[in-house]
Amino acid sequence: MELQKEINVQHDKTQLQKMWEALKMYGPGIVMILTMMGAGDLVTSSVSGSNYGYSLMWLLAASLLIRFVICNIMGRFQIYNNQGMTILDGYSRIHKLFPIFFGIAGLVIGHLIVAQMIKGSGIALAWMFGFGNAFIWSIVVVLASLFIMGRNAYKKVELVMKVLLGILTFCFVGLAVYSGPSVGSILKGTVGFGLPDETGAYSVILVAISLVGAVAGSLTNLIYPYFLQDKGWTKPVHKRIQRNDLLFGFICAIILNLAIWVVGAEILRPNGIQVESVEDISRALSMYMGDLGSWIFYLGVFGILYSSVIGTANGYAKVITDCYYKVTNKVLTKDEKIEGDSKFKWISLFLLVSPIIWSIPGVTGFVALTLFTNALNVVGLPAISIGLLIISNQKKYLGKHTNNWFENIMLVATTILAIWGSYQIIISFFA
Question: What is the value of pTM for the model shown?
Answer without folding.
Answer: 0.78
